[in-house]
Amino acid sequence: MSVEDINDILDRLKSGELAEYRVLKADFLAFRQVLVNRKDFKNFRGIAQRGGDVIYQYLQTPRS
To answer: Which of 9, 12, 39, 64 is most buried, by the most CB atoms less than 10 A from its CB?
Structure first.
């Protein structure tokens, strides 16, 4: 995944176009590296799945 692809996915989550997005274990480190550098990082919730995949959702209220 490229940085542009990841930012596009995160923007689509933020806008509500996507309710959630599954990141495969192989893409997790690249995805997270882009995610943690965003100003709205705390608005994203990652839910770990069996096997190493993570489902990300956007929250209107930032987590603490």
So the answer is: 9
